[in-house]
Amino acid sequence: MAPLTEEGTLIVNNVVVSCYATINSHYGAHIILAPMRWWYSLFGMSSNEMTGIHWFPKMLYEVTNTLIPSIIQK
User: Fold this and answer.
1) pTM of the entire structure?
2) For the Hedgehog protein Hint domain, which residue ranges apply (predicted)?
């Protein structure tokens, strides 16, 4: 499980961890997913209401895996 949060981090056993499980760069993933966070913040919707993989990160993963697979952790 890799839930997405607005901050891009989670606290697990008092350790701050990235919620971007498959990308090597936490900062890069946070920047790339900014439009999705802005959308939910502007329209008052919570991404926490969803189950499964959101279409936007899923599409980004597929494109990245095709074009630059070296930055994907498998």
Assistant:
1) 0.60
2) 2-68
